[in-house]
Amino acid sequence: MAVKGRHFRGLSRKSSNSTLLFAVFIGFSFFVLILLAFGIFSIPFTSRGSRKVHDLSSIAHNAAGRRDDDGGRGDEWAELISWEPRAVVYHNFLSKEECEYLINLGKPHMKKSTVVDSATGKSTDSRVRTSSGTFLARGQDKVVRTIEKRIADFTFIPVEHGEGLQILHYEVGQKYEPHYDYFSDEFNTQNGGQRIATVLMYLSDVEEGGETVFPAAQGNFSAVPWWNELSECGKGGLSVKPKMGDALLFWSMKPDATLDPSSLHGGCAVIKGNKWSSTKWMRVHEYNI
Ligand SMILES: *[C@@H]1O[C@H](CO)[C@@H](O)[C@H](O)[C@H]1NC(C)=O
């Protein structure tokens, strides 16, 4: 019985050694797979030099350092400013040349801005919006197409869902009272459905005033670093100061596809200087032009 037992123990130790080796091998394989899966190390099969300018990796916050291939746009970085509404500022989204180009395209055609009458769907004059503006045709020339493609890349909304760019000019005292970009009527949603998001591009700096303000934004909006530079109107909510080349993206709809009332926004009156901006409204569906 004792001999048999010792023999058995001997066999058992031998087989437990190979089981242990096998377990170590399997464990190591899993370890390598997990490292690969989490990207802790990677098999180098792409070259870093092949990255495109508008690759998402190029817009990380603090990714300072000018690139030579940015078309003269300076440091591009994304600044998430709010979750309610969902809003982000893409700094240096447009180059100075692109801003001037858009202003010059619009300048000869500026008309007093109107607002859409929700009862009739027709444009009407209004005291809530005192700027002047004009619409460009979607894809009207190469520069416009380049900008529209960039907007599509940064918003993940196809170019075909966009309305034509609007160019806007606000002189001292001109403003746009807080409003929603989404529609509350049937008429305006027939083509393209509801407006889902807006990209507002600042084509000029404004010395004082002219902020884009979100009066219904949630959170402590007086905590923004630029609080002391804001006008009284700008202090009425979460505000973005116009800066040439910057683009503000905000969503009028939540991820569950319901309308987001925290997207209420206005253009504060310009106090000193001139404000030029360009707006791209994007629809839920393809927008036919
Ligand atoms: C909001 O932020 C400001 C500036 O950081 C701070 O002084 C104030 O106490 C904050 N208010 C609340 C209600 O947290």
Write the layout of secondary structure elements.
Blueprint: H1 2-37, E1 77-82, E2 87-91, H2 96-106, E3 111-112, E4 114-116, E5 123-125, E6 132-135, H3 142-155, E7 166-170, E8 176-179, E9 195-202, E10 208-209, E11 212-214, E12 238-240, E13 247-251, E14 265-267, E15 270-272, E16 275-283
Antiparallel strand pairs: 1-2, 2-13, 3-6, 4-5, 6-7, 7-16, 8-14, 9-13, 9-16, 10-15, 11-12, 11-14
The chain binds 2-acetamido-2-deoxy-beta-D-glucopyranose (NAG).
CATH superfamily: q2cbj1_9rhob like domain
**DSSP helical segment count:** 3
- What CATH calls the topology is Jelly Rolls
Helical proportion? Answer: 10-25%
* Oligomerization status of the protein chains: single chain
Low-confidence residue ranges: 1-11, 44-68
Instruction: Give the H and E element order.
Output: HEEHEEEEHEEEEEEEEEE
- Sketch the major β-sheet: 8 strands, antiparallel
Mean pLDDT: 85
β-strand percent reads 15-25%
Radius of gyration of CA atoms, rounded to a whole number:
28 Å
Assign an overall shape: elongated
Number of domains: 1
* Attached small molecules: 2-acetamido-2-deoxy-beta-D-glucopyranose
CATH class: Mainly Beta
Strand order in space, largest sheet = 1-2-13-9-16-7-6-3
Q: In angstroms, what separates the terminal alpha carbons?
A: 94 Å
Assign the structural class, choosing from mainly alpha, mainly beta, alpha/beta, alpha+beta, or little secondary structure.
alpha+beta
CATH architecture label name = Sandwich
